[in-house]
Amino acid sequence: MNIIQHVANLLIRSVFHADPASWPWTWLVQAVVIGIAAFLAFAFVAIFAGPVSWIERRIAGRIQSRIGPNRVGPQGVLQWLADGVKCWLKEDLVPAAADRPLFLAAPYLVFTGMFGAFVVLPFGAQVVAADLNVGILYLLAITSLVVVGLLMAGWGSNSKWALFGGVRSAAQLVSYEVPSAFSLLCVVLLAGTLSTQGIVAAQGGWPWDWFIFRNPFMFAAFFLYFTAAIAEGNRTPFDLPEAESEIVAGYNIEYSGMRFLFFLFAEWANIWIMAAISAFAFLGGWQIPGIAPEQIAATKGWEFVGWQALSWTIFLVKATFLVFVVIQIRWTLPRLRVDQLMITCWKYLVPLSMLMVLGVLVLLALVPEGGGADTILRGAMVGLGLAVVLVSALRVRRTFRVDREHYREMEGRDLWYPPYRLP
Amino acid sequence: MIPEPVRALLFYLCAGLALAGGCWVAFARNIVHSAFALLATFAGVAGLYAFLSADFLAVVQLMIYVGGVLVLILFALMLTSRIEEARVSNPTIGLVPGAVVLIAVSALLVYACVKEFGGTTDLPPGEPTTAGIGDALLSRYVLPFEVISVLLLAVLLGAVTIAGGRLRKPAPGGKPGKERP
C-alpha cells in the first residue's frame, strides 16, 4: 500500500467515519489526495529549481574566480525570487512571423515531459505517486515528450538559430537514449523488475548492497548512464542545443517572460530527475542501512511517518550530491563539437553499454549471489568507489590550496578558504 | 474501484483525443501541424492501451511512436525545403478518386472490426503483462521474433549502404571526403 492510499484511508476513517473498502466515494477521496500530491510535487520542482539556479550561479562564480549573484538577500539567496518576479512581469512576446499555436504550446509539452517523470520517482519507502509495473520504462518514454516539445519550439519560433537548436537537441536526445537505456537494462537485469520501488527494494542500505558496487560492469554502467543522462539533459559538455557561441541560445532564443522561464525550469527539474534516477537505480535509493523495507511497512502512526521522513532524507541527500556533481561538471569541462558528440555516443558509449549488459548477464549466470566470489567482487568495488571519492576530494582540496596561495601572493591576505566563505 | 461513469469518461477522453488528433492530421493544411497532431493520436492510443490493462504496450507505444517515429518524421520534415507550401507537401488527387479510396478503405475496416470484435467483452483484469509478453516472445513466438530482428538488421545495413555510398567517394582534393555532405 503506498502513501496515497494510506492517507486516503486515514481521511475516510477519521473524517467521514466510513470503511474505505466498501464506501462508494473512496475513489473520489483518492483522486483528491492524488491531486494534492501532484501539487506538492509541482511545488517541489519550483522550490528545487529556484534555489538551484542560485547555487549553480554561485558555484560558477567560485569556479571562474568571480563573485556571482550576491545582492538580493544575504549572500544573494533570494536572487531566484527576484528573477521569478521579473520574468513574471515581463511581456509574453510572440514573434510576428512565428507559428503561433506551436510557439505557444511548446513550453507546456517540455514541462509536461519533465513533470511526468515525477510520478514514478521513489522518494521514500512508501512515498511514491504511482508504483507502476513498468516504472523505469515509463521514465524513458515520458521524456520523449520533451524532444517533441523542443522540436516544436525550434520550428514554431521561425528562426534559424531556434531551428538549429531544436534539431540538434532532438538528434542528441534520440542518440543518447540508447546508451542510457542499455545502462538501465543492466539494473533491470539485476533487479528482475521494471518497477522503480522494486529496483530500490532489490538493493540494500549498506554501500556493498547497492547495484553500483555489485560488480565491475555495474560500476562502469553507472558512469555510462550518468554521462548519457547529462547529454540527455542538454548540460555542458553536451549543451550544443543552446551553444551560446554558435547559435546564441538555441531553441529558446525567441521566448521571453514566463515561457522562457518554463524551459529553464524544465532544465533544472531534469538535473534533479537524472540525479534521482542514478540514485535509485545504482546508489540504493532511500534504503536505510540496517532496516529492511518490510520493517518500515509494518510500523504504524508517527513511527511510520518518522521512517518515511528518514528514507526521504536519505534519498534527497544522495540525489542532491549528484546534482552538485552535475553542476561542477558544467563549469569544469569545455563543450564538444557536433561530430565529437555523435562519435562519443555511437562509437564509444553504445558499444560499451552493450558490453556492460553482456558482462552483467555473464556474471549473473556465473557468480551466485551471496557466495565467496560475490563478496570479493563487492568488496573490491566498494574499495574502488572509495578510492574514486578520495582522489577527487584530495584534488579539490589541492586546488583550493593553490588558489589560496595565489590569492595571498597577489593580495597579501587570506580569502575564499575554507570554500564555503564567499565574498 | 473506479465507478462505471468515470471509467466511461476516461475511455471517451482517450478515444476522443486519438480521433481528434487523427482528424487534425488529415485536415491540417500545414504538414508540420499534421506531424505534431500525430502526438495527440499516439497519446490517445497509449491511453486506450492503458485502459485495456496493457501497461507494457501503453508505455512502449509512447516510447517507440512518440520518441522514435514522430521525432523521425519531424526531423525529415524540418530538413525538407518549402515544406510549408500545401502544394508541395499535400498534393491532391481530386475529389472523386479520394472518395472512392475513402469508401473502399472504411468499408474494409468496418467489416474487419465488426467481424473480429463485434459484441462486447469484459475488461481484462489489471495485471502486469511484461513478464507474460517476455515469456511468449522467447518461447512460442521465438521464430517470428528472430526473423523480425534479422529483417531489421537487413534494413539497417541497407540504409547504411544507401546513405554511406556517397560519402566514401574521394573528394576532388584527393583526400577521402568525410561527414560533410
Topology overview:
The complex is a heterodimer of chains A (423) and B (181).
Chain A (H helix, E strand, L loop, with lengths): L2 H13 L10 H38 L15 H11 L10 H17 L18 H8 L1 H13 L3 H32 L4 H6 L14 H17 L11 H4 L9 H26 L10 H6 L2 H30 L7 H29 L5 H40 L12
Helix pairs in contact in A: 1-2, 2-3, 2-11, 3-11, 4-6, 4-11, 6-7, 7-9, 7-14, 9-11, 9-14, 11-13
Chain B lengths: L3 H24 L3 H21 L3 H24 L7 H4 L5 H23 L12 H9 L3 H26 L14
How would you describe what is shown here?
With 423 residues, chain A is mainly α. Chain A has three domains: 1-89, no CATH class; 93-366, no CATH class; 377-423. Chain A is built from 15 helices and no strands. The longest helix of chain A is centred in the C-terminal third of the chain and has 40 residues, at 372-411. Chain B folds into two domains: 1-99, NADH-ubiquinone/plastoquinone oxidoreductase chain 6, subunit NuoJ (Four Helix Bundle (Hemerythrin (Met), subunit A), Up-down Bundle); 128-181. In chain B, helix 1 (4-27) runs antiparallel to helix 2 and helix 2 (31-51) packs antiparallel against helix 3 (55-78). Chain B has 181 residues and is an all-alpha fold. Helix content of chain B is 72%, strand content 0%. Chains A and B meet through helix 4, helix 5, helix 6 and helix 7 of A and helix 2 and helix 3 of B.
List its traits.
heterodimer; A: 423 residues; mainly alpha; B: 181 residues; Four Helix Bundle (Hemerythrin (Met), subunit A); 2 domains
Quick rundown:
The complex is a heterodimer of chains A (423) and B (181). By secondary structure, chain A is mainly α. Chain A has helices at 3-15, 26-63, 79-89, 100-116, 135-142, 144-156, 160-191, 196-201, 216-232, 244-247, 257-282, 293-298, 301-330, 338-366, 372-411.
CATH class of the largest domain in chain B: Mainly Alpha
Count of domain modules of chain A: 3
Average pLDDT taken over every residue of chain B: 81
Hey, roughly how much beta strand do the residues of chain A contain? under 5%
